[in-house]
């Protein structure tokens, strides 16, 4: 109420309670993230350039809203219905990232992935957790440093160049 310049009674005229306020703020932040991610995905360049821009947009969004980001992440369960939140995250970040991963696989700049949606989810989670950790520990995000650190992990993986990727273990079959 104070941040909006309203009395508490005016605020509760529009919202039923704190959970409704949190849900509104989360939806608003996710809408802003979606707008910035979609704009970043539309920059000129190849798929890796666009994906770097999407990663930067997520980090810049977190950095521009540090207190709200931390508050909303800490209160996700109270801030709205989780399926609605997941759908907004998917639309706002996962979908542009998935499209760019598929675009890069088609033009040979990325390898073909069995599950681009899973890769987009992993990328979102990595960026979100690293960004939030920076906010908690430092109060802000060094967007350039974090973006430059995250990219190579996804472009090249974490294995040494001469180390073959581990193969998934098969579950024993019952006889």
Describe the protein in words.
The protein is an all-alpha fold and 175 residues long. The chain is built from 7 helices and no strands. It has helices at residues 8-14, 18-41, 47-64, 66-74, 82-107, 116-138, 143-156. Helix 2 (18-41) packs antiparallel against helix 3, helix 3 (47-64) runs parallel beside helix 6 and helix 6 packs antiparallel against helix 7. The radius of gyration is 19 Å and the shape is elongated.
Computed Rg: 19 Å
Considering DSSP H and I runs of 4 or more, what fraction of the residues is helical?
A: 55-70%
Could you give a short account of the major beta sheet?
A: none
Mean pLDDT: 82
How much of the sequence is in beta strands? under 5%
**Low-confidence parts:** none
Shape: elongated
List the helices and strands in order: HHHHHHH
Q: How many helices in DSSP terms? A: 7
Strands, total number? 0
Class from helix and strand fractions:
mainly alpha
- Terminal CA distance reads 65 Å
Compact description:
This protein is mostly helical and 175 residues long. 69% of the residues lie in helices and 0% in strands.
Blueprint of the fold:
Blueprint: H1 8-14, H2 18-41, H3 47-64, H4 66-74, H5 82-107, H6 116-138, H7 143-156
Helix pairs in contact: 2-3, 2-5, 3-5, 3-6, 3-7, 5-6, 6-7
